[in-house]
Amino acid sequence: MTYTRPPANTPSVTAGVASLSAPERAAGSRVHYLAGGTTIMYRIAKGFLDPNEIDLVDLADQPHMREVSSDGAGLDIGAMVTLADLLCVVHEDARYRLLRTALEHVASPQIRTRATIGGHIASSLPFSHILPVLLVFDSVLSVKRGSESRQIAVAEATKTPYRSGLASDELIESVHVPAAAVESAFYWVDGDRSGMVRPKLVLTVARLAGGKVRVSAGGSTLARRVTSLEEFLPRKAQSVNGIVSLSEDEVDSALTDESWLTAHQRLLIRRLVPTFLSIGES
Fold first, then answer.
1. Kind of pairing, strands 140-145 and 30-34?
2. What does the alpha-carbon distance between residue 153 and residue 133 come to, in Å, rounded to a whole number?
3. How far apart are CA 242 and CA 233, in angstroms?
4. Residue 227 in contact with residue 269, Cβ under 8 Å?
5. What does the pLDDT look like over 132-145, one tens digit per residue?
6. Is the pLDDT score of 18 beyond 60?
């Protein structure tokens, strides 16, 4: 393992990483950006990271990555913004009440004070409380590699548990969360509210203006959009002049193609979705 801590306001952290000389980088090593440091030891202990094969780049001195801005288009969050600071930003903004609720469920206040939004996404945690909400809003990452930048959907960057879908030396610089017109929303966690028990299901349902419905689920499995329900529910609404009645069997039938869901997740979803659609926001 090597360790590098670029100085404050380095114009391009990734360009500096790319220029490390051969003696500074072990053969076959992978760059690992250190943010809050709350998941790296867990990932090493579980074998997802080999400490002998990573070049650790500490982002502690990059204040430009700790900025948050909000406008009519949405929320732009620097990758080094802690979950605690982000919770303060969105606490009074009704547009992001789903994100606020998800943040409140993450671990403990101590963890939220250290953990960053960029590190949380890059860790691709199956039990994430936040990823389902980011997926529902079609959130997008701005990433950089050397002097090149690109945008990638959060869904594309989190396809494999515990392993980022980015190139080894790509850096998440910021996260964009669009401001969707949410008419009602539902967020449910199969676990205690303290967030200290890893949930088997994190379910997010949002009913948007125009009749669209977005659904995502995670927990035992890495968070994904439940596209079959997103396609089925608006059709159901049209057939009965609004989503007012839905049976568990109908939901279960719509989930037939979602083979990635566990039996437990599927059972809970078939019970919860009709309840939400009949009572509104929860």
1. unpaired
2. 13
3. 10
4. no
5. 999 999 999 999 99
6. no
pLDDT at 96: 94
- Can you tell me the distance from the alpha carbon of 25 to that of 45, in angstroms, rounded to the nearest whole number? 22
53 phi-psi bin (left φ>0, alpha ψ -120 to 50, beta other): alpha
3-class SS letters over 243-267:
CCCCCHHHHHHHCCCCCCCCHHHHH
Phi, psi angle pair for 158, to nearest 5°: -130, 50
Q: Tell me if 131 sits within 8 A of 175, measured CB to CB.
A: no
Scanning the structure block, which residue is given the tokens 């419905």? Answer: 213
> What values do phi and psi take at 187, rounded to 5?
-130, 125
Tokens at 176, concatenated = 């964009």
Structure tokens at 50: 């080999």
CB-neighbour burial class of residue 47 (10 A; exposed 0-12, middle 13-18, buried 19+):
exposed
| Cβ neighbour number for residue 19 with a 10 Å cutoff | 10
For residue 144, which amino acid is it? K
Residue pLDDT, tens place only, 133-182? 999 999 999 999 988 999 999 999 999 988 889 987 899 999 999 998 88
Residue owning tokens 């994190």:
202
Average pLDDT rounded to a whole number, residues 194-217: 86
Judge whether 130 and 99 are in contact, CB under 8 Å.
Answer: yes
Judged against a pLDDT cut of 60, whether residue 28 lies above it is answered with: no
Note the pLDDT tens digit of each residue in 108-128.
Answer: 899 999 999 999 999 998 889
Number of residues that this document lists for the chain: 282
- pTM tops 0.85: yes
Distance CA 2, CA 93 (A): 42
Judging by DSSP bridges, how do beta strands 68-71 and 74-78 pair with one another?
antiparallel
With CA atoms as reference, report the closest residue to 271 among 249, 253, 255, 256. Answer: 249
Residue 203 CA to residue 268 CA, distance in Å, equals 9
